[in-house]
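Sample intake — Recombination-associated protein RdgC
Collected from: Mizugakiibacter sediminis
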Amino acid sequence: MFFRNLTLFRFSAKVAADLDGLDAALEGHRLRGCGPLELATRGFVSPLGRREEPLTHSVGPRTLVSIGAEEKLLPAAVVNEELARRIQKIVEEEGRRVGGRERKRLKQEVLDELLPRAFVRPSQLSAYIDKENGWLVLDTASRKAAEAGVTALREALGSFPAVPLAPEETPRALMTDWLAHGKLPAGLRLGDECELRDPATATGAVVRCRRQDLESDEVREHLKGGKQVFQLGLEFDGRVSFVLGEDLVLRKLRFLDGVLDELEADERESARAELDARFALMTLELERLLAQLSAWFGLPRPGDDA
């Protein structure tokens, strides 16, 4: 259950203290199936599996939650084709033009007939709450999906003032400096991919490097030409690799052999014990990484008035 991407929010110690009733709050917001005329539903499912009952799973001060969703698959092309067929039938049989109001009514009729027969696509977003350090960590690189996850928590809790990251150091400038001069913070080393852009124009040149020596003269020439780093592949302490974006989203997160060897050292008796081990190992590694990320870019935990 290792996360593959990280979108981050922060919250204060006061907010953390108010999370003691999380289990009960989520209970009233379980995922239910789409009704016949619903396009989508959203709610919480058990992180232990959709057939399990508990909606949270905690190891120490960190709590795993899962936001589930069901969405009807009804392509616009299908709706439009059926609508056009009905409009054409009226024109041919009644010899009159269909106005805007009638067109809208006909389209709703089409939706009402097709929705109950549409396929349902389930999805799930995992997240964990670190009450001790004030992090909400969502396993997605999509800002839209992350905001939807935070909104689901706010709806369940009534209030959850977790805020997006507001770095004191500009990520683009700092990463560009790391790549240009090769002087990275202790424990951090360059990976093998990056994305460079010319920030002067909205349609400026974009250079994407993969499986590339980032200390090469070719990359340095792009930087001398005024391009800046928008994404940078990095490795932390030889244990975690990722691609860090200027939005401070961590993509392509991967735990390296040293971490995986620790996980495989002991056998577990059950699937739940395996989940506990993976979750504990992942969150301990990320605790170290996020503490350094906070130090590099200036990401203080919000005060109790947040």
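Post-analysis note: Residues 31 and 43 are 4 Å apart (CA to CA).
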